[in-house]
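Hey team,

Filing this mostly as a record. A colleague (T.K.) asked me to run one chain through the structure pipeline before their review meeting, and I want the input and output archived in the tracker in case anyone asks later how it was produced. No errors, nothing strange. Just documentation.

Input sequence:
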Amino acid sequence: MYRRQSKNYFSHFSFLDMLQKDPCQKQACEIQKCLQANNYMESKCQAVIQELRKCCARYPKGRSPVCSGFEKEEEEKLTLKSTSK
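Output structure:
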């Protein structure tokens, strides 16, 4: 006798979502290329860093793992602002 198991579609969707390509991966790779080409001087790569920031702003928090550093930076800025008042 065949028993159909119930599926948790939300978990299944989350798993599939994790398998999707990071939407800002291209910009992150461009930063790495720029940094390598410029002896890791961030000042010479501001344009590509800004492009990654723009990409990160287009997606909800947590959607792009490469954006996690920017997200943490923003949280720290907000914390500093709230404690300095």
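Quick notes for T.K.: Residues 1-13 have pLDDT under 50 and may be disordered. The longest helix spans residues 68-84.
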